[in-house]
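Give me structure tokens for this 332-residue protein.
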Amino acid sequence: MNAIESQTILHKAPTLLAFQIYSTALYNIYIPYPPPISNTINLKMFSNNLLFTLFLTTFLTLAPLSNAKPATFLQDFRITWSDSHIKQLDGGRAIQLLLDQNSGCGFASKSKYLFGRVSMKIKLIPGDSAGTVTAFYMNSDTDQIRDELDFEFLGNRTGQPYSVQTNVYAHGKGDKEQRVNLWFDPAADFHTYSILWNHQHVVFYVDEVPIRVYKNNEAKGIPFPKMQPMGVYSTLWEADDWATRGGLEKIDWTKAPFYAYYKDFDIEGCTVPGPTTCTSNPSNWWEGATYQHLDPVAARRYRWVRLNHMVYDYCTDKHRYPVTPPECMAGI
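Here you go.
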């Protein structure tokens, strides 16, 4: 979880001053400020209370939390492919990925997670990026029975919209691609891409706007990823045989090298191996009532994306699926 933030607020009242120690962990402690000597408040009790409060405040502020945002890239991640093509920036708080004719590159989390949320801010390849793929995904790394949740950013010819493809694998069954044209230039600045994963659904977000929902419909015999922990991965690679206009647009290597940038890595979830009770703990924030379904505002945004920016949906591809896949009937 994010580190607990504490702050001290000075309150004034006609005959009382109090310090309120407030934190997002819902601790609220009021300590009376020393009154005039004529007051009968026990100053020794006040002193003891104040010392305890200062200790508690320091503890809440400084105590390490296992799922807090990493201060640097290497705290939670490791380079898995072509370390010469990954450069740390800003003291390791950001990284640059490079693709050239010699190699792409990639990285992965040091741990695996079962449920939670993962997000990153990414600035994609500018200009002519046709034939390139920048991928951000979760994967159980279990071969034929793998679970996987994919963001794949498909490069474009200059002036054309960037597409993001999402895909879901559950118990080894995938081929559930959907594509959305982004409604902004993702190479001009950083944007936040997130995956929320709980027992009820998987939601893909772009800047907190949901672009895909995959519901848990196990009761209807539809696989859902819930048993296998997944690592967090990212790669930058060449895929000009399919990435842009079905492979019609090839990489222009005269524009190489190609760069993508990442920062603000945030993983919040149940680490595996870890406490066995974590994944079934209803107090995990991502399992809360607020995250069991899209609220009305999020649902409107979701419909807006799908009506105005979706360019491919396997659910409506009658060539591939003459019979509509059952999960496509679930809605949101």
